[in-house]
Amino acid sequence: xxxxxxxxxxxxxxxxxxxxxxxxxxxxxxxxxxxxxxxxxxxxxxxxxxxxxxxxxxxxxxxxxxxxxxxxxxxxxxxxxxxxxxxxxxxxxxxxxxxxxxxxxxxxxxxxxxxxxxxxxxxxxxxxxxxxxxxxxxxxxxxxxxxxxxxxxxxxxxxxxxxxxxxxxxxxxxxxxxxxxxxxxxxxxxxxxxxxxxxxxxxxxxxxxxxxxxxxxxxxxxxxxxxxxxxxxxxxxxxxxxxxxxxxxxxxxxxxxxxxxxxxxxxxxxxxxxxxxxxxxxxxxxxxxxxxxxxxxxxxxxxxxxxxxxxxxxxxxxxxxxxxxxxx
Amino acid sequence: xxxxxxxxxxxxxxxxxxxxxxxxxxxxxxxxxxxxxxxxxxxxxxxxxxxxxxxxxxxxxxxxxxxxxxxxxxxxxxxxxxxxxxxxxxxxxxxxxxxxxxxxxxxxxxxxxxxxxxxxxxxxxxxxxxxxxxxxxxxxxxxxxxxxxxxxxxxxxxxxxxxxxxxxxxxxxxxxxxxxxxxxxxxxxxxxxxxxxxxxxxxxxxxxxxxxxxxxxxxxxxxxxxxxxxxxxxxxxxxxxxxxxxxxxxxxxxxxxxxxxxxxxxxxxxxxxxxxxxxxxxxxxxxxxxxxxxxxxxxxxxxxxxxxxxxxxxxxxxxxxxxxxxxx
Lengths: 328, 328
Fold this sequence. Notes:
- Chain A is of the alpha/beta class.
- Helix content of chain A is 46%, strand content 16%.
- In chain A, strand 2, helix 2 and strand 3 (52-56) form a beta-alpha-beta unit.
- The mean pLDDT of chain A is 93.
């Protein structure tokens, strides 16, 4: 098994990527890692290993590059070269922590969409307020537009992933909507509700409202890319703001507060850890011809490590083949 | 000036409503309050006042009633009767803390839409991470469907409200979208961006992403009712979950944690207060023929008090007349 990794994507690349790769290789004696980036820079950072190949590339897709243009123009970027490696079968899956739009474009235009999948979807694994209980939400922004048929495929692909990668029997699938009854929402969501209800083999249990996302009532949450992206960004923004404000109020407080802060510090960091997404790996681009994982832009070595494991598990589980079997 | 109040809507009605009304009347010697509900029950609760009239009604719209059916069938409910009071000119504005959908239906079907307003919008005032800095977001769910022309009117009405009621000169208007550049989002949001840019007298400053809502960059955030409702529910759910989990972790902790909790208790409640929406009044239904305010379902007397003041200010400011001048 070979995994292609873009060493140059992410806020702390390439150091965080390299450290994550090395942690992975300490535990794994089978997988080959193909690391894409400027050879001179990378060879200084990496510890040589028979499982690790550095592939020299001369360009970098930046965070603010226009995605499709970057993929077309930066043919020798670490991202495009890593994606081409997967396309040509030199590697079996791709990980990048770089520009999300460019990773989607590389997945869709270089590695390619699975035949009869209308639109690939981006799907993170997200925490609930119950320790150890997560859900997958898709699409969170691979597509700005939505059709009913996209949503039914998202339900199928999300369900297969949750069963396959998370080992959940008959994953509970819900539709993100602004009310619980079947007639709620706009016509798209009303019709998607009816269409998903008709799907064979899907344990569809109706609508879920955004207020309920933390309650662990769904294993897979289906949504259109616009709503999913807006809800995900609201979740992240709110969580970050509250924890930040609370930390600040403790640090800036009087002596009494500062002593209190020392005593509850552990609780605050436990809470932050519960919602820390590093162990959930990255967001998966479902519906393309190979496992493609987008790690968080501020990925630290631990996140990179878990994301590599996630690519490996998707390759081992032949999840992509299951999508192909379903649609072809 | 006369304000019609539904005494029976909300989790703690009628007690919380009556107490809020009485607090308001202590400070105000001009406004007439017309309080709708079962006379026998209400006269036991209220302190008689020459400014307060109890109007007897025999039915109640419940929280889980289907909104439009409830408005049609419960003609003698406190909500419908209060709305009819406004329609016939007996009162100048309406407050209810009851069933949101039913309040919207009462506003639209009983009090009536302003001519040439395509769709009324529901608009709360929301906190940012900066103390004293708020924003209005509309629509948060009066409409599940969206058209470009609805969004341009939301920009206009929201802007007039922010200038009028919050005293902001040239309120900064932004469009809620899943990216910052003008071409981001689905075709609806791309076209709405262009259309709002063309509006005279609107200080439009482009897109705002949900992660930025807490940063205070906009006075008015324009969105379609589906996205707005989903984002608002995500905000509320996330905030409630984080604060709840942190409080629980303190209460359930060891002795060290419990002592720490006592010392930081003030900080935690300050933070909760900063995001407590009671002082922001209620959500306004903009675009109907009179001020209609929907107070939060769990409104306490303080919330009711501020929401009555908000109705009064909208009546005094002749905000509805300004909408009529714009569209007629």
